[in-house]
Structure to design on (180 residues):
Protein backbone atom coordinates (compact mmCIF):
# COMPACT_ATOMS: atom_id res chain seq x y z
CA UNK A 1 0.00 0.00 0.00
CA UNK A 2 1.46 3.28 -1.07
CA UNK A 3 0.22 6.57 -2.37
CA UNK A 4 1.24 10.06 -3.25
CA UNK A 5 -1.26 12.92 -3.31
CA UNK A 6 -3.26 11.48 -6.17
CA UNK A 7 -1.71 8.04 -6.84
CA UNK A 8 -2.69 4.87 -5.01
CA UNK A 9 -1.03 1.47 -5.37
CA UNK A 10 -2.80 -1.57 -3.96
CA UNK A 11 -3.44 -5.28 -4.44
CA UNK A 12 -6.65 -7.24 -4.90
CA UNK A 13 -7.35 -10.73 -3.58
CA UNK A 14 -10.22 -13.23 -3.84
CA UNK A 15 -11.99 -11.68 -0.81
CA UNK A 16 -12.05 -8.29 -2.56
CA UNK A 17 -13.61 -9.66 -5.73
CA UNK A 18 -16.05 -11.72 -3.65
CA UNK A 19 -17.12 -8.72 -1.56
CA UNK A 20 -17.76 -6.73 -4.73
CA UNK A 21 -19.79 -9.56 -6.29
CA UNK A 22 -21.86 -10.02 -3.13
CA UNK A 23 -22.45 -6.27 -2.81
CA UNK A 24 -23.59 -6.11 -6.43
CA UNK A 25 -25.87 -9.13 -5.94
CA UNK A 26 -27.38 -7.60 -2.81
CA UNK A 27 -28.44 -4.56 -4.87
CA UNK A 28 -29.83 -6.57 -7.79
CA UNK A 29 -33.61 -6.69 -8.21
CA UNK A 30 -33.26 -9.91 -10.21
CA UNK A 31 -31.42 -11.63 -7.35
CA UNK A 32 -33.95 -10.31 -4.82
CA UNK A 33 -36.88 -11.64 -6.89
CA UNK A 34 -35.17 -15.00 -7.35
CA UNK A 35 -34.47 -15.25 -3.65
CA UNK A 36 -38.06 -14.40 -2.73
CA UNK A 37 -39.64 -16.74 -5.29
CA UNK A 38 -37.39 -19.65 -4.25
CA UNK A 39 -38.18 -18.99 -0.59
CA UNK A 40 -41.92 -18.89 -1.26
CA UNK A 41 -41.80 -22.08 -3.29
CA UNK A 42 -39.59 -23.97 -0.87
CA UNK A 43 -41.74 -23.37 2.20
CA UNK A 44 -45.12 -23.38 0.44
CA UNK A 45 -44.79 -26.78 -1.25
CA UNK A 46 -43.93 -28.70 1.94
CA UNK A 47 -46.82 -26.90 3.65
CA UNK A 48 -49.23 -28.09 0.94
CA UNK A 49 -47.89 -31.65 1.22
CA UNK A 50 -48.14 -31.46 5.00
CA UNK A 51 -51.78 -30.36 4.80
CA UNK A 52 -52.53 -33.10 2.26
CA UNK A 53 -51.03 -35.80 4.48
CA UNK A 54 -52.76 -34.35 7.53
CA UNK A 55 -56.14 -34.61 5.82
CA UNK A 56 -55.21 -38.16 4.71
CA UNK A 57 -54.49 -39.11 8.35
CA UNK A 58 -50.82 -39.74 7.50
CA UNK A 59 -49.60 -37.95 10.61
CA UNK A 60 -45.96 -39.02 10.40
CA UNK A 61 -45.59 -37.67 6.84
CA UNK A 62 -47.59 -34.56 7.76
CA UNK A 63 -45.26 -33.90 10.69
CA UNK A 64 -42.22 -34.39 8.46
CA UNK A 65 -43.48 -31.85 5.90
CA UNK A 66 -44.49 -29.35 8.59
CA UNK A 67 -40.98 -29.55 10.07
CA UNK A 68 -39.49 -29.01 6.59
CA UNK A 69 -41.81 -26.03 6.17
CA UNK A 70 -40.71 -24.46 9.45
CA UNK A 71 -37.00 -25.07 8.82
CA UNK A 72 -37.23 -23.67 5.29
CA UNK A 73 -39.28 -20.68 6.39
CA UNK A 74 -36.74 -19.62 9.01
CA UNK A 75 -33.40 -20.75 7.59
CA UNK A 76 -33.64 -20.38 3.81
CA UNK A 77 -32.13 -16.89 3.90
CA UNK A 78 -28.91 -18.15 5.50
CA UNK A 79 -28.76 -21.07 3.05
CA UNK A 80 -29.27 -18.75 0.07
CA UNK A 81 -26.46 -16.46 1.23
CA UNK A 82 -24.12 -19.40 1.79
CA UNK A 83 -24.94 -20.94 -1.60
CA UNK A 84 -24.58 -17.64 -3.45
CA UNK A 85 -21.25 -16.89 -1.73
CA UNK A 86 -19.93 -20.37 -2.55
CA UNK A 87 -20.95 -20.08 -6.21
CA UNK A 88 -19.38 -16.63 -6.64
CA UNK A 89 -16.17 -17.68 -4.92
CA UNK A 90 -15.87 -20.67 -7.27
CA UNK A 91 -16.34 -18.33 -10.27
CA UNK A 92 -13.77 -15.85 -8.92
CA UNK A 93 -11.18 -18.55 -8.26
CA UNK A 94 -11.67 -19.92 -11.77
CA UNK A 95 -11.55 -16.56 -13.56
CA UNK A 96 -9.50 -14.04 -11.56
CA UNK A 97 -6.85 -16.12 -9.78
CA UNK A 98 -4.01 -14.77 -11.93
CA UNK A 99 -4.88 -11.25 -10.73
CA UNK A 100 -4.64 -12.02 -7.00
CA UNK A 101 -1.82 -10.09 -5.37
CA UNK A 102 -0.84 -8.21 -8.53
CA UNK A 103 -0.19 -4.50 -8.08
CA UNK A 104 -2.93 -2.14 -9.18
CA UNK A 105 -2.42 1.58 -9.65
CA UNK A 106 -5.07 4.29 -9.57
CA UNK A 107 -4.22 7.90 -10.31
CA UNK A 108 -6.73 10.74 -9.90
CA UNK A 109 -6.31 13.46 -12.54
CA UNK A 110 -8.32 16.64 -13.17
CA UNK A 111 -10.34 15.14 -16.04
CA UNK A 112 -9.83 11.37 -15.77
CA UNK A 113 -8.78 8.40 -13.67
CA UNK A 114 -5.71 6.49 -14.79
CA UNK A 115 -5.66 2.74 -14.08
CA UNK A 116 -2.76 0.38 -14.48
CA UNK A 117 -2.26 -3.28 -13.69
CA UNK A 118 -0.41 -6.25 -15.16
CA UNK A 119 -2.92 -6.59 -18.01
CA UNK A 120 -2.56 -3.00 -19.21
CA UNK A 121 -3.45 0.57 -18.51
CA UNK A 122 -6.19 2.98 -19.41
CA UNK A 123 -8.00 6.22 -18.75
CA UNK A 124 -11.52 6.59 -17.44
CA UNK A 125 -13.03 9.99 -18.12
CA UNK A 126 -14.67 11.57 -15.09
CA UNK A 127 -17.94 11.72 -17.05
CA UNK A 128 -17.95 7.91 -16.91
CA UNK A 129 -17.78 7.86 -13.09
CA UNK A 130 -21.23 7.59 -11.53
CA UNK A 131 -20.30 7.65 -7.84
CA UNK A 132 -18.31 5.90 -5.17
CA UNK A 133 -19.90 3.51 -2.69
CA UNK A 134 -18.33 3.07 0.72
CA UNK A 135 -19.04 -0.15 2.59
CA UNK A 136 -17.28 -1.22 5.81
CA UNK A 137 -14.34 -2.89 4.04
CA UNK A 138 -14.15 -1.34 0.57
CA UNK A 139 -14.71 1.62 -1.70
CA UNK A 140 -16.29 0.87 -5.10
CA UNK A 141 -15.95 3.55 -7.76
CA UNK A 142 -18.95 2.85 -9.99
CA UNK A 143 -18.61 3.45 -13.72
CA UNK A 144 -21.35 3.95 -16.29
CA UNK A 145 -20.23 0.76 -18.06
CA UNK A 146 -21.64 -1.29 -15.18
CA UNK A 147 -18.19 -2.07 -13.81
CA UNK A 148 -16.46 -0.69 -10.75
CA UNK A 149 -13.00 0.00 -9.46
CA UNK A 150 -12.49 -2.01 -6.27
CA UNK A 151 -10.46 -0.33 -3.53
CA UNK A 152 -9.90 -2.37 -0.35
CA UNK A 153 -9.68 -0.08 2.68
CA UNK A 154 -6.87 -2.24 4.06
CA UNK A 155 -4.79 -1.41 0.97
CA UNK A 156 -5.43 2.32 0.47
CA UNK A 157 -5.66 5.44 2.60
CA UNK A 158 -9.45 5.74 2.49
CA UNK A 159 -9.51 9.35 3.69
CA UNK A 160 -7.03 10.37 0.98
CA UNK A 161 -9.15 8.58 -1.65
CA UNK A 162 -12.33 10.29 -0.40
CA UNK A 163 -10.52 13.64 -0.48
CA UNK A 164 -9.58 13.04 -4.12
CA UNK A 165 -13.16 12.02 -4.93
CA UNK A 166 -14.55 15.14 -3.24
CA UNK A 167 -12.12 17.39 -5.10
CA UNK A 168 -13.29 15.83 -8.39
CA UNK A 169 -16.94 16.28 -7.32
CA UNK A 170 -17.61 12.54 -7.28
CA UNK A 171 -20.37 11.66 -4.84
CA UNK A 172 -19.51 9.17 -2.08
CA UNK A 173 -22.48 7.06 -0.97
CA UNK A 174 -21.99 5.79 2.58
CA UNK A 175 -23.33 2.28 3.12
CA UNK A 176 -21.25 1.57 6.19
CA UNK A 177 -23.90 -0.76 7.62
CA UNK A 178 -23.95 -3.02 4.55
CA UNK A 179 -23.40 -6.69 5.25
CA UNK A 180 -23.95 -9.76 3.12
Amino acid sequence: MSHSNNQFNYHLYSEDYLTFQLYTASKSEVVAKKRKSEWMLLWFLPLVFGLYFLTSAEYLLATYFFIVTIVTFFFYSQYFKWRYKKRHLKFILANYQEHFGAEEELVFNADHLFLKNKTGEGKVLLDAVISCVEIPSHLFIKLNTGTSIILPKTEVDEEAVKTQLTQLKINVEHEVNWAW
Q: What stands out?
A: Residues 2-13+98-174 form a domain with the PH-domain like fold (CATH 2.30.29.30).
